[in-house]
Amino acid sequence: MSCTDLDLGEIRNSVGERLDYSLVSGNAECRDVVVIGHGVTGNKDREWALTLAECLRVAGFCALRFSFAGNGASEGVFENSCPTKETADLAAVLDRLGGWRVTFVGHSMGAAVGVLRASADERIERLVSLAGMVHTADFAQRKFGDLEAGHDSMWEKPDCPLSQVFLDDMRGIGSVEALAEEVRVPWLLVHGRADEVVPFEESEAILARAGGRAELFALDGADHVFSGGAARTMALRVVAWLEEQGAED
Q1: Can you name the residues that pair with 107 across neighbouring β-strands?
Q2: How far apart are CA 58 and CA 62, in angstroms?
Q3: Does the pTM of the predicted model rise above 0.70?
Q4: Domains of the chain (ranges plus CATH)?
Q5: Is residue 96 a contact partner of residue 11, using CB atoms and an 8 Å limit?
Q6: Which pairing describes strands 21-24 and 62-66: parallel, antiparallel, or unpaired?
Q7: Strands, E assignment, 17-163
Q8: pLDDT digits (tens, 9 = 90+) for 156-168
Q9: d(Cα 100, Cα 153) in Å, to the nearest integer?
Q10: Which pLDDT score, from 0 to 100, does residue 83 have?
């Protein structure tokens, strides 16, 4: 069976919420599925995710983009979105991909979700962190510390209200840096040096904890969402890395 045969039907998380996803097939021989998860207030249709999925398709990989519950067209309440819940959403996707070789690509908070899942779940065989958030408590304080949960919105987006659930979970996790030692699979980190949302230094810090299992690709001038041509540069590096990993199997 190849990834062109994938028919996942509905994907629902542990509380029954339907997760919106888009699936593009690679070549008939490929047995890899690259699952793409977004960051805070994002969804599966962000430009960087579309660019990455298309580059993966052209290279012959199967790519599955999905929105975490409460985001995009997925069911659920945005105020319940937090790393712990999104880690469970990712597990629901993995449940439907049994038997396939899965790479998870997470952006920003989605990268923290990837570390949380991959550190304890052997079904993720390769991990990619894009502009990866490491210090969740610090992020919540820096970006939303002067806002009131239940009253204010994240980045002044009316459909993204700041919730106490989110703040409590971010503070409770604190940081995923120490979990890097539990990630036992090949791991690529891609981070723009001009990122003003998640500092480039966070990828350097978690790289140091991951040892030889991880490598960091720095993009000079790239912002948090890989605007402009940086998205294609990022995507081509991810594709090249996956091809390198395949050659080593």
Answers
A1: 130
A2: 10
A3: yes
A4: 3-135+177-244 (3.40.50.1820)
A5: yes
A6: antiparallel
A7: 21-24, 32-37, 62-66, 101-107, 124-130
A8: 999 999 999 999 9
A9: 39
A10: 98
